[in-house]
Amino acid sequence: MNELSVTVRQMFQEKKDIVLSIICGFIGGITAVGLFSASGYLISKAALAPPIYTLMVLVATVKLFGIISALSRYGERYFSHRGTFTMLSHLRVAVYEKIEPQFQQVFRRFRSGDMLARIVGDVETLQNFFLRVFYPPIVLCLVFLMTIFFTTIFSIVHALIIFAGFLLTTVIIPLYFSLRQQKVEENLREKRGDFSTEMTELFFGFRDLKIHDSLDEKEALLENTAARYGKEQEKTGIHQLYRETLNAFISLIISVVVLATGIYMISDGELDGIFLAMLLMISLTVFENTTAMAVLPGHLEDSRIASKRLLEVTESGETVEDDGEILELMEAPTIEMRNVSFRYDKEARNTLENINLVFPKGSKTAIVGPSGSGKSTILYLLLRFEKAQSGEISINGKEITKLNQESIWEHANVVLQENHFFYGTIRDNLRIAREDLTDEEMLHALKKVDLESFQLDDPVLEKGANLSGGEKQRLAISRAMLKNSFIWLLDEPTSSLDSLTGAKIYDELYQLAKEDTL
Length: 518
Ligand code: ADP
Ligand code: MG
Prior knowledge:
- 65% of the residues lie in helices and 7% in strands.
- By secondary structure, the chain is α+β, with helices and mostly antiparallel strands.
- A hairpin with a 2-residue loop joins β3 and β4.
- It binds adenosine-5'-diphosphate and magnesium ion.
- Residues 375-376, 417, 491 line the site of magnesium ion.
- Residues 375-376, 417, 491 line the site of magnesium ion (MG).
């Protein structure tokens, strides 16, 4: 159950709601038992035509129990759900905070669809942990113990029968199913992950699949995955139903035993006949609560696996501790790489070997080489997206592994080979360079990259789908220009532009970066 420790920790942040749910659940359960036992007694008593005030007292008791029971049930639902939703939001934040520092590694290990299935679906699943696994057994035990105690006043034998039924339905059977809750649930989550993965691939690759006439194959694959997911769901459903039926069956058997023993004891004169209906009603009502135990093994296993899958994401890579020294720059820095060798995770060969580079303060350097030679990789290392296996990279003599990562990014104007644009407007996309940019500054920057035809309110679609390759590149350059820090890292910034525009933009860049290290 190690997997659940994180979830449990999140859960206990909501102690107040946990306690309130348990209290309300207990009152609701015990008053329901009281309600039905009082009505059983009332029916028997009424048959004997007692004085009317006796009946009035009983009727009032029944009404009172009814109202209290309904209100407490409402309270139980309210507090348990409020607690659960708060727990879920804590959990989402906790997962995100774990993933964020290792975003580079996470997407190398998980496909994006699977990742989404985990963060959305598996977190969602964990809502059942508190609602169906953690507190219902506590409430159930309290209600049962109280009921059994009450029953002993009238008949020890019946108290024992109910106790046996309690052991059977809340302990033995759930335990048995928990132990052999095979791989059903695990398969279900896996299949959901597969389905989500195939779905995102199809969406992302739709155009390429269509062009290459391969859409049908991919669709068939998706349908296949969907069918397997459906099958697993069906299997899980059948298992659950089976457990619930068994539980209901045993509860009924217990009630029959209560009735039969009651009749036997009355004929022997050991029990007053007036209590029989009451005892039967107690047994019928108290076992109604055990349906919760029938679904518990499923939810427990489900939560355990969801928790495990979340842990796989959050614990997959080494978490970069970002408590390094803050990089402070008053002017352009000198950047050095000494004997740097680097190999991508799980790759056989080194991408970079013994690289020695010096970028003096205020210098402009071009790194030229064939495609795949490692130009972009050098940039990733300088930005500390990746970590070199050996060698040293320093800014003004300070090793970057000892520097706070965000403070490095803060001082760098970066244009990567692939730049992301968010759904929104041109203004939104430029503003990520700096929060306090004015419209004039932004328009000015657009002009420098020959994008004066753009309005700041023009829409940008997801991933910049409505922009051409060259437009995207120029927008990224203007974003870097707006940042206006001392380090410039540009990865083939004009590769999608014609040479005239490219030359013009370089002129602008050199103007802006006159004093900077580029
Ligand atoms: P360049 O920018 O010079 O074209 P890159 O630095 O992008 O080259 O890539 C250098 C080499 O590293 C290539 O052989 C490429 O296949 C490999 N590579 C790039 N990114 C990754 C990655 N994320 N995982 C594994 N190998 C990679
Ligand atoms: Mg490259």
